[in-house]
Structure formats: structure tokens, C-alpha cells
Amino acid sequence: MSTRILYIATNTFREAVRDRVLYNLIAFALLLSGAAILVGQISIDIEKLVVINLGLTAVALFGIVIAIFIGIGLVSKEIDRRTLYTVLSRPVHRWEFIIGKFFGLAGTLVVNAFFMAIGVFAALLYVAHKFQAPDGWILVALYFVILQFLIICSLALLFSSFSSPLLSAVFAFSLFVIGSFSEDLRGFAALVKGPVGWLVKGVAYLVPNFSTLNVISSVAHAQPVSGRLIAYNSAYALLYSAVALCGAILIFQRRNLK
Amino acid sequence: MTEMRRVMITASVVLVACLAASIAVLQKLDQIRTGATLEDVLYLSSPSAVKRMSLGYDGLMADIYWTRAVQYFGSRHAARASQYRQLAPLLTITTALDPHLVVAYEFGANFLSPEAPDGAGMPEAAVKLVEFGIQNNPDNWRLYYNLGFIYYMDMKDYARAADAFERGSKVPNAHPFLKILAAQMAQHAGETQMARALWTTTYQTTQDKQIRGNAILHLRALQVTDDVTTLEEVVAQYRQVTGQLPKSLADLVAARMLRSIPLDPTGRPYKITSEGRVEVAVPDDIPFIEKGAPPGYTPPPPKDLEKLGS
Amino acid sequence: MLAIEIIGLAKTYSVGFWRKRPKVALRPLDLTVKEGEIFGFLGPNGAGKTTTLKMLMGLVFPTAGSARILGKDINDPGVKAQIGFLPEQPYFYDYLTARELLNYYAQLSGVPAKERERRTDEMLDRVGVRDAGNVQLRKFSKGMLQRVGIAQAILHDPKVIFFDEPMSGLDPIGRREVRDVMEELKRAGKTVFFSTHILSDAEALCDRVAILHLGELRGMGAVADLASSVQGNVEIVWKGTTIFPSIKALNAVCYTTADTVRAVLPETNQDAAIDAIRRERARLVSVTPMRTSLEDYFVQKVQRIETGMGAKA
């Protein structure tokens, strides 16, 4: 069973790597890292700040875009093109298919983030001329970005299992935006009383919390990240992704393929 | 159907379990993040940068930053914080995005300028904020009032305070009290009745619960100051007449110098110590108390302003 | 053991925005296929053949009934290892090469790692795409894709193989090759179930057929039996150019050539026609029974319903 998931994941990874869209986006992101150096030159003394802020933000945002671009097509494309027929007529469980796709996409994003991060570190080395101990926290920020990727992948997969690519993209992107403000949503819910408050609170807890996974600004100021935060964030990302994946499995399990 | 049913049931159970767990983790995360120093670093501290990032949705972003400012202050105030570094930037960004959000200026006047732990202790920043507000809302009398308030209360600059009230009184539909305050300033600056007038005006005119709660506390403290001063005069009288200190305030009533033992704003009777000082029964219940507390008294952590003001 | 057993299998789709308009794709179907035979599933387009196949593959869920393959219920996960499927006009992952695709499918089918390379090579050879083994599938022609499709259906040596319209879009050589593959499979003891609307293929290959039309089973049986059940025609040729009314009265369709008349009429009227020609003193050239075909049977079964539908409308 687990080997089949691995095979599906590997195949998904291969598909992503051979998709030209990926390369365009990566190239653009690396360009942005380079641009960060230029921007830093303009404002003296905060070159390092700009490189880290802009570089990590580029990794995060581009990764999210790639995740959505590729993720939305994962299931719906296979159904449209009927490539699924020959896969599912084999001893493959539908849920193995979903999980395999998830790992394939997540793997693609991790590798992608790895390469872009090298770009960021290279830019950092260029402006700061050497690495310092606090720079290690950048790796934590990157780890959190990868956790964001996991959540977005699972959401893209969820939407792809029942809706068209365009709608999936819209939903996934909206959830990303709302999720980035989820702490404010909860703050707002605390101020509103009554049934509306409960509704907002419900939404605030169901929406993925991306704001907690964003420590780019504090890392740019060389501030440390607490171990407790790392632990809880990891737990949250894994739990939330599991929820979305279970949803995808439930929907896909019952779906009549056209 | 058994295979499919098994998958459906397993997936449903896992889904519900993980959802519940994720909400629990989320609550824990909220706790961690409000306490952590991470909170102290604003993602973007430049108003112009935020404005650009808002992509035109300035109003919404202003509301978001306003909410953050209120929460920031509220949570730190409850924890008796010693500084509020982010309050000024948060309010500056809020007002940069929406210069007509008058309550933000009011908030700054009431909580940016007083000393910690009741405020950020930045009266100059507060002045700057409110002046910006006046620039953008020249017909709003409240802003002039707030400006005068800052000058009077925290900077003790009575001349500028009077000037601010004067300017404000000229605005159409201004609160009639502004003219009176401006006039009184020359003679009675520094007196408790001025303070009382100001806090009363604030209490009556503000819409924000935290500000109103704050005003209530100040008014109570002023009440106590007045009461204690009066009582001390009566005690002095008694001493003159009888040649000794009264053992309790009941003696004053017996001597027909007082009609009855007065109650403090918390509803408790005042008392007199063996050294002849008039004090309140429970000073902890009266924040901002000036007179009427035992010597060497330190105030406890602040109250929940919002609950008080609603 | 029966290779395939279909019991009351039916599918109704609910269409429309509020899902209120039911569309019957397949009425309850009962069908059996024996091991080792080639079974043809015939019908015009839209008859419900693909729907049936998709239900057997577990791609679509039936609204009623059940089915068993090699004794196991189709929902049993163990079933899939024994079957192969070639869908109609298949697409494959076009970013993979033929070899990579077959290897991937072999992985999913549980072919042991040691075997995979050998099997992949063997399949590429067998369907004749060995030279294009390392070319990306996006560059393959339709015929080559079909061959790859056959390869993926049989590479794990399944006992029952399902083909959905395997000849569609192929040139005559391609079609011949597909027929050869099917016959090879039968010789190897496999069961073949294929759907098509090309009757001549079915006639040549199948042991038994079933005819489906508008979601309903119209006929089933051995090819020879079905064909001969239809009333046949006889062709009578006589010298001359006159078409005798007495002949026409016998339900004849007549054609004149330079000096002969050719009449095709039901064989039941054969004797009456010969008498009529003698009476007219025409010279009889030949009397030839026309072999009935599956097509006649098919047309009869399908057309009657269509006329019936027309009459209602």
C-alpha cells in the first residue's frame, strides 16, 4: 500500500518538474531575490533586512502560487483527460491516489523552496559578506513557509476533487488571503457579540491560520522563534492538512467519474 | 460496499478528530502569540508602505489596524505592561489609512500620553497624532478637546491647553463646555475642579468603552480627593474645638460637625487613622487615588476598563 | 467459473440544476460471460456500453444491481489485479515516455521490481512500439497510443481484459492488429470483453454478443445463432429487362442490368417467385440464398425500437 503511494507521489513530482510553468515561476522568483539586493542598495543599513524580507516573501508567495497552479489541476485534470481511468482500474485505492498526489505536490514545493532559498542565502551572503548566528532563524521561517505550502496543497487538492480548475484556484487563493488575516478575524469576533459573533468566530477557527506561520518580519530583525511556537505550528499545519485531505478523500471516494 | 464504507468511516473520523485538535492547537497558538515578543514587531511599520500594500482598500486596512491597536492596548494593559512600544505606530498607521477615524485620535489622547502602566507615556507623539487629526478634520471639536486634554493632563502646559480649547470652541456645533474650559484655564489651572470638568466632559462625550471606563476611574479618584480634603478640614476643626483627634468619624457626627459618615465612590465609609489621616477603606478599589491612601501605598494592577465603561 | 456476471446492474443519473431530471443510462442488465470466450458488447453510440464498462471498473457507482468478475464482487479490492482495461480514446500522461508509462502502470499493478523491466520491454515489442520507447507520449500518433493502451491493459497478465471501442479511429492495418491481439489472448485462455459499434469486427471475433440500445438489452447469444434467426433473403436472376408485377408483389427489390433483372426477396417467397417467372416464360439464370449477417439481426432489433419511438412521437 505505501509503495503505491510512493509511486503516485513520484509520478506527480515528475509531472510537476516537466511542467514548464514551474520554471518560469522559479526564474521569476530568483530574479526577485536579485532585485532585493538592488533595492537594499538604495536604503543604507537595511540591506540585510530587505534581502531577508523580500527574499523570504518571494519564496512564500511564489510557492503558494505554484501550489495553487499545479494543485488545482491535480485531480480535475486527470478526470477531464481521463488519465484516471487506467490508473483506477488497477489495484489502486482512491484514497491512495489522493495521498500520493499530495506528497508529490508537497515534495515539489519543498524542492522548489530549497532552490529559491539558496538564492536568498546567496543574496544574503553578498550583502552581509558573512553569515551570523541569528541567520539560523531564517531556516525556521523557511520551515514555517513549507508548513504553509502543506496546508495550501491539501486545500488545492480538496477543491480539485470536486470543482473545476478555475473555481478551485479562486477558492484556494481566497482562503489564503482570509487565512493571512485570521488572527484579526478572531480579534474581530471577540468584539462582536451575539450570533453574528459566533458565526465570525466559527469562520475564524475553520479558516487556515497563515498569520501564525509568518515569522518573516521578526526573523528579519534577528529575533528568535520560541520552541513552543515551532511545536504548535507544526502540529497545527499537520492537523489542518489532514482535515483537508480527509475531506478530499471523502469527496473523491463517492465521485462518479465522467 | 464494505471497502468503500470502511474508507468513508475512517476518513470521517480522522477528519473530525483532526479538526477538533486543530482548533485546540489554534487556541493555544493565540495564547502564545499574544504573550510573545513577536507581537512587538509590526510587519510593516511605515504608514506609506502599508497604504501602498492596501491596494486601495484603505478603509478595511484601517479597521484592521484599529482593531489591532485596541486589542494590543487592552491585552497589555490587563497584563500591567510597562511599555506600549507599538501603540504609536499602530495608531499612526490607522490614521494614515483613514484620517477620518476620529476615535483613533481620541484613543491616542487617552492612552498614548499618560505614563505607564496606564499609557504609553508619549505625550508628544499623542500631540502629533491629534494635530494630524485636526488637520484632516478641522470641523471636529472633539479633536481640539483631545489636544487640550493632553496639554493639560500630561504636559501641564496650561497655556497651550487653553489655546486648544479656544480654537475648538470656535468650531460650529462645538460642545459649549469648550468655551468655559478656555476661560477657566487662566484662573483655575491646576485645580481639581478643572480636572473634574475635563474628565466629566470626556466621560459624557466619548463613545469608546475603554475611554469611558478610564474617565470613570479618574472621576472617582477626584471625588475621593475632594471628600478627603473636606473631611480633613472638619477633623482640623474638631481638633481645634476639642483639643484632640477624633477616634473615628462617628465622633464628628456626634459633635454635629458632620451629618453622617460619608461614603466613598465604592460605597464604603471613610475612616480616620490614629494619626488623624482620613483614608478610604480599600484603596485598591480606587485607581488613580491621590489623597486618602496610606503612606507608601502602591497601586495594584489596573482594572478591566472595557467592562467598566460599558 | 463465470468470468463476468452482471446482475441487475443499472444506472440513473440525476441531471439538471436541482438534480430533478433523472436520466436513465442503463436499465437493469443481466449478463454472463464464460471464461475463455471473446464477448462482444454491441450497440449504437449512447446505448450505455461505456457506462456499463465504467461501472465494472469501479469508476462509476451503480444505482442498482451488482456484478462479479471471476467470482469476486467488483467492489472487492482483489478484483483489480486480475483485470485489464483499455478505455475509449485513451489519454495518457503525455509528459512520460512509453517506457516510463508502462513502468508506472506496472508499479501500480504490483508487478515485482525485478519483472518490471522485462515485462515493459516485452510489451513494447509485442505492440510494436519498441523503437519509440523513449519518446514522450505527447508525440505519439493515435494508432501508436492505442497500441500503448493495449500494452498497459495486458502487461500484468490479467485474466479478463476489457476493451472499450478498441478499433475506433484506427486504419485497417491497426484494426487487424487489434483483432490479432484479441485472438492471441483467447488462445492464451484469457477472457475478452469488448464494446463496439462496428458489427463486422464483432462478427469475425466474438463467440457471443449482446446488443444494447438506449440503455436496454435487446438481444444476446452466439453469433451464428443470432444471424441465422433472422429471416434471410434470396437473390433470383432472370434474363430480360422486364420487372414483372407478380414478382414485385412478393416483396422484391429489383435491379435491372443490360440484359438481366436481379430481384432480392424474402426466401419464404422463393418458390412463389420461381413459379411466377416460369409463368412469364422468362429464362431463370440463378437462384442464390443470401447469407444473413449479424448486421441484419442488429438492424432489426434496433430499428424496430426506433420506429416504435417514432410512432409514439
Give the gist of this structure.
By secondary structure, chain A is mainly alpha-helical. Helix content of chain A is 82%, strand content 0%. Chain A is globular.
> What is the CATH first-level class name of the largest domain in chain C?
Alpha Beta
The CATH architecture term of the largest domain in chain C is 3-Layer(aba) Sandwich
Strand order of the largest sheet of chain C: 6-7-8-3-9-10
Q: How many distinct helices of chain B? A: 13
Largest sheet entry of chain C: 6 strands, mixed
Uncertain ranges of chain C: 308-313
* Element-by-element helix/strand order of chain C: EEEHEEEHHHEHEHEEHEHEEHEH
Write the layout of secondary structure elements.
The complex is a heterotrimer of chains A (258), B (310) and C (313).
Chain A: H1 2-17, H2 20-42, H3 47-81, H4 83-88, H5 94-128, H6 136-160, H7 165-180, H8 182-191, H9 194-206, H10 216-220, H11 227-253
Chain B: H1 2-35, H2 47-53, H3 58-78, H4 87-97, H5 102-111, H6 123-136, H7 141-153, H8 158-169, H9 177-188, H10 192-205, H11 209-242, H12 249-254, E1 271-272, E2 278-279, H13 305-309
Antiparallel strand pairs in B: 1-2
Helix pairs in contact in B: 2-4, 3-4, 4-5, 4-6, 5-6, 5-7, 6-7, 7-8, 8-9, 9-10, 10-11
Chain C: E1 2-15, E2 21-34, E3 38-42, H1 49-57, E4 64-69, E5 72-73, E6 83-86, H2 98-108, H3 113-126, H4 142-154, E7 160-164, H5 172-187, E8 191-196, H6 199-205, E9 208-213, E10 216-222, H7 223-229, E11 233-239, H8 245-248, E12 253-256, E13 260-266, H9 270-279, E14 284-290, H10 294-312
Parallel strand pairs in C: 3-8, 3-9, 6-7, 7-8
Antiparallel strand pairs in C: 1-2, 1-4, 4-5, 9-10, 11-13, 11-14, 12-13
Helix pairs in contact in C: 2-3, 7-10
Structural overview:
The complex is a heterotrimer of chains A (258), B (310) and C (313). Chain A is built from eleven helices and no strands. Chain A is an all-alpha fold and 258 residues long. Chain A has one domain. Chain B folds into two domains: 152 residues, Serine Threonine Protein Phosphatase 5, Tetratricopeptide repeat; 95 residues, no CATH class. Chain B has 13 helices and two strands. In chain B, a hairpin with a 5-residue loop joins strand 1 and strand 2. Chain B is flat, with a radius of gyration of 26 Å. Chain B is mostly helical and 310 residues long. A two-stranded antiparallel sheet of chain B has the order 1-2. Chain C is 35% helix and 30% strand. In chain C, the strands form three sheets. In chain C, strands 6-7-8-3-9-10 form a six-stranded mixed β-sheet, sandwiched between helices. Chain C has a four-stranded antiparallel β-sheet with strand order 2-1-4-5, covered by helices on one side. Chain C has a four-stranded antiparallel β-sheet with strand order 12-13-11-14, covered by helices on one side. At the A-B interface, helix 8 and helix 11 of A face helix 1 and helix 3 of B.
